[in-house]
Amino acid sequence: MSSPAAAAAATSAVAESIWQQIKSHRSVSEDHLSTLHFLFGKNLERAARIVDQGGVRRVSAAPSGRSLFLVVGESKRKEEYICFPEHLCTCYSFFYDIVNRGEQLCCKHQIAARLAEAVGAHREVQLTDEQLALMLSKL
Ligand SMILES: [Zn+2]
C-alpha cells in the first residue's frame, strides 16, 4: 500500500518535527542526530560540516521581509548556492538527484540551512528588496 510518494511525505513530516524540536531547544540531542542520520544518511554529515565551517548565511530583504539562504558548497571552488530549504536549491545535485531521479528528499545544502537555522549557527545578511531581486534575477 505504500507508494514512494507516501514514504517521502512521511519522511518529510518526521524531519519537520525534528527541526522544530531542535529549534525550540536550540541544541541537537543524540536522538535528533540519529533520526536525522536515518533520514538523510551521508548528507547529514556533509551538512553538519558546512554548518561547522560557518557556510550558511540567511539573507533577509527589507522592507518585504523575504528571505533565502546562501550555502557554501564543498567543492574546491567554494561556490555559494541560493537555497530555499523547503523547496529549492540551485546546486547540481538538487536537479539531478532530487528533481530528475527522485532519489532523495533534499540536498545537503538544504539540510545545512535547516540545521544552521535550527541551532542559530547561520550569519545574517540584510539587503534591500532591489538587491534581492538582482540576486534572484541571476538564477
Ligand atoms: Zn543544494
The radius of gyration computed from the alpha-carbon positions, rounded to a whole number of angstroms, is: 15 Å
How far apart, in Å, are the first and last alpha carbons?
39 Å
Question: What's the number of structural domains?
Answer: 1
Spatial shape: globular
* Low-pLDDT regions: none
Percent of residues in helical segments?
40-55%
Q: Which strand order does the major sheet show?
A: 4-3-2-1-5
SSE ordering: HHHEEEEHHEH
Tell me, rounded to a whole number, the average pLDDT. Answer: 92
Structural class: alpha+beta
Describe this entry's structure for a reader:
The protein is of the alpha+beta class. It has one domain. Helix content is 53%, strand content 19%. The chain has six helices and five strands. It has helices spanning 4-25, 30-40, 42-52, 92-100, 108-119, 129-137, and strands at 56-62, 67-72, 80-84, 88-89, 123-128. Strands 4-3-2-1-5 form a five-stranded mixed β-sheet. Strand 2 (67-72) and strand 3 (80-84) form a beta hairpin. Helix 1 (4-25) runs antiparallel to helix 2 (30-40), helix 1 (4-25) packs parallel to helix 5 and helix 3 (42-52) packs across helix 5 (108-119). 27% of the residues are buried. The chain binds zinc ion. Zinc ion is lined by residues 81, 89, 91, 93-94, 107, 109-110.
